[in-house]
Backbone:
């Protein structure tokens, strides 16, 4: 079986598009991971700031409770 030049070009183009797609997908996945980690760290910092303010104002020494009952 021999490949004509047009078929070789199509195959190379298909592989190039596949490579571009895989790099793009990897970038999106990495961004989503980074954003989730950043959001969790931001929430932890904010919760720590609120707890420190509550302790400074004498509003109790406990950690802020979370959940439906508290």
Residues:
């Amino acid at each position: 079986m021999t490949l004509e030049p047009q078929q070789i070009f199509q195959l190379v183009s298909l592989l190039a598009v596949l490579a571009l797609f895989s790099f793009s997908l990897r970038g999106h996945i990495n961004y989503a991971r980074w954003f989730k980690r950043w959001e969790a760290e931001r929430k932890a910092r904010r919760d720590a700031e609120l707890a420190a303010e509550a302790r400074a104002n004498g509003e109790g020494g406990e950690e802020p409770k979370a959940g439906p009952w508290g």
